[in-house]
Design a protein that fits this description.
By secondary structure, the protein is α+β, with helices and mostly antiparallel strands. The protein has four helices and seven strands. Helix 1 (12-25) crosses helix 2 (36-48).
Length: 149
């Protein structure tokens, strides 16, 4: 049984590896530029900035990572290692996010990531807008999920 738990500092190397491998598996433009060292160095920085970081732990193997901020209801990262994809682990991570952000969740996705966009929309997220940002080479789509009244 895969356990979802708060990440420990000892998990950070594996979290960065899952993050990078999952991002690379999307094969979006520039996928090969995913940099393990950069992702690894971001983790403590992002935690200091408000990330709540969780991992899916399969008997010592980190199968997925989840990062959200409660201060602004923002789901920042949800990545499942390629070997664990399409087995419901993402839904479990999203359920945990909804426990911590029960009223509203905001997120963004690359417009070229058809898999993520389809998944978020099936999970009840509503597209709010698209924005081309200076630090990104394609528009990002912004989503919002609200608990039903």
């Amino acid at each position: 049984m895969i356990a979802i738990r708060p990440a420990l500092e000892a998990d950070f190397d594996a979290v960065a590896r899952v993050w990078m491998e999952s991002w690379q598996s999307l094969r979006l433009p520039h996928w090969e530029e995913a940099d393990y060292a950069e992702m690894r160095s971001r983790i403590p920085f992002e935690i200091a900035g408000g990330w709540h970081l969780y991992v899916a732990d399969d008997a010592g193997t980190i199968a997925a990572m989840l990062a959200f901020r409660t201060r602004d209801n923002y789901l920042d990262q949800i990545f499942v290692a390629p070997a664990y994809q399409r087995h419901g682990l993402g839904k479990r991570l999203l359920a945990l996010t909804r426990e911590h952000l029960p009223d509203e969740i905001l997120l963004r996705a690359d417009t070229r990531n058809a898999f993520a966009i389809g998944w978020y929309e099936r999970e009840g997220f509503v597209r709010e807008n698209e924005v081309l940002q200076d630090d990104w080479d394609a528009p990002r789509v912004y989503y919002r999920w609200r608990r039903a009244p």
